[in-house]
From TrEMBL:
Location relative to the cell: Membrane
Primary location group: membrane
Gene behind this protein: cytX
Xref: InterPro entries: CodB (IPR030191), Pur-cyt_permease (IPR001248)
Name listed for the protein in its UniProt record: Hydroxymethylpyrimidine transporter CytX
């Protein structure tokens, strides 16, 4: 148990009953979000914006994938910015913020989802770092790379705001230099035709890019609660993240074109150019801020369930846990489950944005331990989830079959232009708006309980 006395003034509080210092400037936050936008997954996962079929064969040409990625990232960046603002205004982490949206006890449902997905992504990041390190060093003990990555991740989470400031001062500069260097080197290579093929699956590719941006929504307020202003929080999250994700994915798509769209070889072009291994090592080292964000936000989510648990103890335990998982698990079969969990947060953002900016949130949400249940917001969220799953049932066994059967029962066949993310966001937002308007008409002076 910690007290306010032993809490550093410019660091995140140890428990949720302590105030959050407003110490992060626009540039601090921009550096943080910019680094999250540049990921090894932007290279290894670049093929996802080419709308691969069930066999993994891309259905979009590289140029269409670039445009789809730009469009999806731009929309996703705005959504991420919208998720950043409420945290600054309320001064609480993301899952605690949901007490105001759903009520304290109902907020535990998305909290558990978020804990599961953050542990999964944290584990996946350690595996990606270890695999990339093996390529840099030409082999070596995989377990050692995992452990080193886990230790670095854990140290960063103990001093989260200090880590954000370090990213601004040093890491961001190194990443920018590495990106410029690789753009120069890869564009000098003989690229194949980037325009050959159909654009008919454009929105599937855009949806994939949008989903990557949205994946950070459940943790945005964990950091923006320390922002000095709402404008700084929105601008840093939407612009800095969006720009660097676009830059990283375009680079990944160029590398993919050079290896005939074989995603298993996408790291090759980076290492085959002069000084490529050195500059690629910058990306590998920087990847630790992805696992750091996942672990720290997992701790913040757990604190919504147990507010007085010390976040330092939580992050040490979680750092050790994802390290053990990364050593023991094969993540290939888990990717579909992670995508499924992430999909529930897209419509949730639609509910949050409309209620916060247009209705109850403007006057201030109740985020106390006794915040009353708001079942109407759960209804709006469920409508959005159903929309998403009917358009994109995913690949998780029984869940996918259930929604495929629902498609058949409703005689509904999704069109290629349908974006599951955009439409579920819109449906959830419209239902929330309808509920809010009805409540305002029937009970203008009361809150929804």
């Amino acid at each position: 148990m910690s007290t306010a006395v032993d809490q550093p003034r410019n660091e995140a509080p140890y428990t949720l009953d302590q105030p959050a210092p407003k110490v992060l400037s626009f540039w601090d936050q921009s550096a943080f979000w910019a680094n999250l936008g540049v990921s090894l997954l932007a290279f290894s996962g670049a093929v996802t914006v080419l709308a691969p079929d069930a066999q993994g064969t891309p259905q979009l040409p590289i140029m269409a994938g670039i445009v789809a990625m730009i469009v999806g990232t731009a929309i996703g960046g705005i959504m991420l910015g919208l998720a950043a603002v409420p945290g600054t205004r309320a001064g609480v982490p993301a899952m605690m913020l949901l007490r105001g949206l759903f009520g304290t006890r109902l907020s535990y449902v998305p909290t558990v989802f978020n804990i599961l997905q953050m542990i999964g992504w944290g584990t996946f990041e350690l595996i990606v770092i270890a695999d990339a390190a093996e390529q840099i060093f030409g082999g070596g003990p995989h377990w050692l790379y995992v452990v080193v990555a886990g230790v670095i991740t854990t140290v960063l989470t103990i001093w989260p705001l200090g880590s954000v400031r370090v990213l601004r001062r040093y890491v961001t500069t190194a990443v920018v230099i590495a990106l410029i260097y690789f753009y120069i080197q890869l564009t000098r290579q003989p690229l194949p035709n980037l325009t050959h093929g159909s654009w008919s699956h454009f929105w599937i590719g855009a949806d994939a890019a949008l989903a990557v941006s949205i994946s950070w929504v459940p943790m945005a307020a964990d950091y923006t609660r320390h922002s000095r202003s709402e404008r700084a929080a929105f601008g840093a999250a939407s612009v800095a993240y969006g720009v660097t994700q676009i830059v990283a994915y375009v680079l990944g798509l160029l590398a993919l074109a050079l290896v005939a769209e074989d995603s298993t070889k996408v790291f090759g072009p980076f290492q085959h150019v002069a000084l490529g291994t050195l500059f690629f090592a910058v990306f590998v080292l920087r990847e630790a801020d992805q696992s750091f964000a996942n672990v720290y936000s997992t701790a913040m989510s757990i604190q919504n369930l147990a507010p007085r648990l010390d976040r330092r103890l939580l992050t040490v335990v979680l750092g050790a846990l994802i390290t053990v998982f990364a050593l023991a698990l094969n993540m290939n079969d888990y990717a579909g489950f992670l995508t499924l969990i992430g999909s529930v947060f897209v419509p949730m953002l639609g509910v949050l944005a409309v209620d916060f900016f247009c209705f109850g949130g403007r006057r201030g949400w109740d985020v106390s331990d006794g915040a009353p249940a708001r079942w109407s917001m759960i209804v709006a969220w469920a409508a959005g989830i159903a929309t998403y799953q009917l358009i994109n049932p995913g690949t998780v066994g029984w869940w996918s079959r259930m929604w495929t059967n629902a498609q058949s029962a409703l005689h509904f066949t999704p069109s290629s232009w349908m974006s599951a993310s955009l439409l579920s966001f819109a449906v959830a937002g419209l239902v929330t708006a309808a509920i809010g308007a009805l409540r305002r008409t029937e009970r203008p002076a009361t809150e929804d309980v």
